[in-house]
Amino acid sequence: MTNPDHAALPYRPNVGAVLFNRDGLVLVARRADLPNAEGRAGVWQLPQGGIDEGEDPRVAVLRELREEIGTDRAEIIAEHPDWLSYDLPPELIGRALGGRYRGQRQRWFALRFLGEESDIRLDLDPHPEFDAWKWLPIDELPLQEVGFKRATYAILAVAFAPYARPAGS
């Protein structure tokens, strides 16, 4: 049962990146901090992260890409018109996000990856958030093991579907 005080907690301002490669596929990465037991695919998610105080979300999304996947070689091609929010599951409230937030309020961007696959470097951070990455069709996004983020990913799969085509087409 959720503590009623948790409803008074704010949402953490956050940005997220739906990064499309030249073939129109989307990058997802596997969280390094959650168990990837044998026979289990692990928890896959889109790159995302907090917005610093006073930071423009368009700047934040490129910074987060650089921090989480080792490169910001991308251009913003679209922005979701709404802020999308999700609540943490009850067992994570008070533990995740420093215990200060009930969930996240996110501004999502579609970006086109301009680099080479060798530019994606999960090993640059001494404590990487991800331990693996892959490209997949956008319609498979909500089918990944994303748990409480599934509803947000379903919205993004529809909203950004027009960008899921090869670059230049």
Automatic annotation (TrEMBL):
EC category name: hydrolase
Q: Which UniProt keywords are present, listed alphabetically?
A: Hydrolase
Q: Which GO terms describe its biological process?
A: nucleoside phosphate metabolic process; ribose phosphate metabolic process
Q: Does the keyword Hydrolase belong to this entry?
A: yes
Q: In the Enzyme Commission scheme, what number(s) does this protein have?
A: 3.6.1.-
- Purpose: Accelerates the degradation of transcripts by removing pyrophosphate from the 5'-end of triphosphorylated RNA, leading to a more labile monophosphorylated state that can stimulate subsequent ribonuclease cleavage.
What name does the UniProt record give this protein? RNA pyrophosphohydrolase
| Species of the source | Lichenicoccus roseus
Taxonomy of the source species: Bacteria, Pseudomonadati, Pseudomonadota, Alphaproteobacteria, Acetobacterales
